[in-house]
Amino acid sequence: MVGYKNNSARIGPAPMPLQSDMAEAIDSIMRGAPPLALFTTMARDRRLFFKFFNSGLLDRGHLTIRQREIVIDRVTASCGAEYEWGVHVAVYAQKAGLTEVQVASLVTGGGDDACWDDADRVLIRLCDALQETCAIDDDLWSALTANNSDEAILELIMLAGTYRTVSYLVYGLRLPPDAATRRSPA
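Structure (tokenized):
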């Protein structure tokens, strides 16, 4: 994973206290934990904050938590977005049933690593294809449709795109990792 040379963000967080509706939105996700720098930075602009928050795909949709986290972790690792990768690994890896070997594989390995089953491999292939070409070839599409509904496939593609956007934000802003996040094994 690519890192940046300093630990200072290019744009600072919004002044505190935040407007009540933004603070409530953050609290609903953080559940008493300190807000993430990404959230408080986005809170500088009310319109952008709510567009960002309303586009989230962390709810109970068509994917399992494991599917969701494999996609998020692979995309953010591929983008070099250690900040967001670290947030998700720290909070969700265990809940998603990801082993330490699998977490490392999402950063430094690939879908062919022995730690993955066939369903997981397809998700990693999807992320890699979208990162490399923004396309899904017919063989990969067939593999996706074998175990996923059309709605789940739509959500997988949207999730990968959403976390590419999040990666652009955290990497472009050079947000330093929050205290409770994991650091990349790379």
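The chain is about 60% helix and 0% strand. The mean pLDDT is 90.
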